[in-house]
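Subject: design request, 212 residues
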């Protein structure tokens, strides 16, 4: 059985064995309750809307919000240094060009700008790398959930598709619709099942405050 899914563009390896951790194996095999995927068992083929799952997966949303907060904290810290540079430039304007005070202020500003640029680049790189890991971890979780569900429901092939409606007034949207790999699917959409499986796992984790 092969699950056809395309991962988000990410960098770096991420080793997470969800099956080894028993995150899905504790869930009972059950017949599909999702009407949109009612024929998946019958045909042995299914489709899954990965972008939709990313948008609605609670764990992914929480991690992205945490990264946003971290970025805002870093921006606030860097703003203080940016303000200090501007204050130093204002101080420099009080001195006459060529004086020792002017040259010293000029050197201080150059040093402060170099340090600020370095910190900014490091902060941006850190956020990008963390975001990449979140995307890759989520991709693995989605992929493993699809594999588990397919095996439990005798589904031999899962295609990735995009169930978002095409806006006829947007050229790029129309082109996306034209280029969709799945032209037609007859109630084999297991997206709700996969999303429920993933969010149920989050709800069952210790400290979540939720129960199945």
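Subject: RE: design request

Done. Sequence follows.
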């Amino acid at each position: 059985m092969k699950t056809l899914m395309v991962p988000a563009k990410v960098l770096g390896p991420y080793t997470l064995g969800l099956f080894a951790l028993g995150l899905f194996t504790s869930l009972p095999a059950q017949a599909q309750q999702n009407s949109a995927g009612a024929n998946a068992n019958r045909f042995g083929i299914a489709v899954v809307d990965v972008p939709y799952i990313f948008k609605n997966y609670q764990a992914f949303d929480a991690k992205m919000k945490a990264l946003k907060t971290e970025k805002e904290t870093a921006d606030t810290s860097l703003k203080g240094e940016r303000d200090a540079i501007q204050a130093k430039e204002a101080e420099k304007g009080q001195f006459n060009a060529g004086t020792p005070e002017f040259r010293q202020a000029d050197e201080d500003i150059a040093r402060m700008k170099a340090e600020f640029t370095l910190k900014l680049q490091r902060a941006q790189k850190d956020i990008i790398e963390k975001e990449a890991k979140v995307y890759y971890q989520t991709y693995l979780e989605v992929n493993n959930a699809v594999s588990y569900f397919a095996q439990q429901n005798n589904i031999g092939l899962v295609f990735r598709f995009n169930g978002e409606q095409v806006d006829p007034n947007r050229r790029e949207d129309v082109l996306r619709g034209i280029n969709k790999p799945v032209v037609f699917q007859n109630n084999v959409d297991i997206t709700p099942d996969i999303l429920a499986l993933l969010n149920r796992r989050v709800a069952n984790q210790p400290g979540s405050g939720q129960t199945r």
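Strands lie at 2-3, 45-48, 157-160.
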